[in-house]
Design brief:
Distance between the termini: 21 Å
Largest sheet: 8 strands, mixed
Low-confidence stretches: 305-312
Shape: globular
Number of helices: 15
Helix content: 40-55%
Oligomer: single chain
Structural class: alpha/beta
Radius of gyration: 19 Å
């Protein structure tokens, strides 16, 4: 039976450099670009933005890393008036302005539309008007601009404002409901390739850590729990449970790579890589993750004749 290989990228804000350097390390070893290695790219939040760049511009992971560094892509997206930062601490405004991010994505993805792509995409967003999670694929009724999809799927609440797309609907980051899209991507791949064996490489961006003082927490109300990041705790636990169930259900068809950021002395806030030192640290972590998981990754890839030759 022929096989189809799916890449699934978790959300994680600017920690996307970890994921990209896992992939860049794989590219260096196999001699195959990420674009050519996979038949479908799935991504949530920042992972969705990477999926759009990979599939839309036929880019390698190494090429995206170079672009981020040379064009200061993350720094360009993470801009906002100082008042926004202050009001964000009071839970009154998004931390960053949406305009710079939209312009960067329009510049990088131009007039590309999702139905025109040769590679399959799977990107979740949350539709505010319909109160539901929706999935952008090449087979959507609406042939959306890729730049708008990338913009909407990275509109993380409290960091960026919602994005209004061509159909007039408002969307936010799909990570609120599907921050690990591996299971959804696997099932979608089985739908479009029913006679193929589907394998998914799922890469996380590092789990955040939270420590609570139980005695103090007894007095917390909604504002205190919100300030302490309870929403992020819930999101992390749902994502971890989903990843474990996906691996348990599909066995060696799915390989998931992730770890706690605290194990690498890496700041875990979602916009921590908006600084050159943290960017370099993220890249080091990605290379370390690849080194530690190299055998598992190459074994996972070995099912494809062309890929196994390069990976030998």
């Amino acid at each position: 039976m022929q096989r189809r290989f799916v890449l699934s990228l978790d959300g994680g804000g600017s920690h996307l450099l970890i994921q990209l350097n896992v992939l860049a390390s794989l590219e260096a070893e196999t001699g195959i670009s990420t674009y050519d290695q996979f038949d479908m790219v799935a991504g949530s939040s920042s992972g969705g933005m990477m999926a759009c760049l990979i599939a839309g511009r036929a880019m390698s992971a190494y090429g995206i890393v170079q672009m981020i560094q040379q064009e200061k892509l993350l720094e360009s997206m993470m801009t906002g008036h100082w008042m926004n930062h202050l009001l964000n601490r009071l839970h009154l405004r998004p931390k960053y302005s949406g305009g710079p991010k939209s312009r960067v994505l329009q510049r990088e993805l131009g007039h590309l539309r999702i139905a025109s792509l040769d590679k399959s995409l799977f990107i979740p967003c949350f539709n505010l008007d319909r109160d539901q999670l929706e999935i952008f694929t090449n087979h959507c009724p609406e042939n959306f601009l890729l730049s708008e999809i990338a913009d909407a799927c990275t509109a993380a609440p409290s960091f960026y404002p919602p994005v209004q797309m061509e159909d007039g609907g408002w969307r936010i980051d799909g990570g609120v409901g599907m921050n690990n899209p591996a299971l959804g991507a696997y099932l979608h791949a089985r739908e479009i390739w029913p006679n193929h064996d589907v394998k998914v490489l799922s890469i996380g961006s590092g789990w955040r850590s939270f420590i609570f003082d139980g005695a103090k927490a007894c007095a917390y109300g909604g504002m205190q729990w919100s300030a302490k990041g309870i929403a992020s705790v819930i999101l992390r636990e749902k994502m971890m449970a989903n990843a474990r169930m996906t691996e348990a259900m599909f066995g060696d068809h799915v390989l998931y790579i992730n770890d706690y950021l605290k194990n690498y002395a890496m700041p875990d806030h979602m916009d921590s890589a908006n600084h050159p030192d943290n960017q370099r640290k993220s890249m080091e972590i990605g290379r370390l993750w690849y080194a530690r998981n190299r055998g598992r990754i190459l074994k996972w890839l070995s099912g494809h004749p062309e890929r196994s030759i390069h990976a030998a």
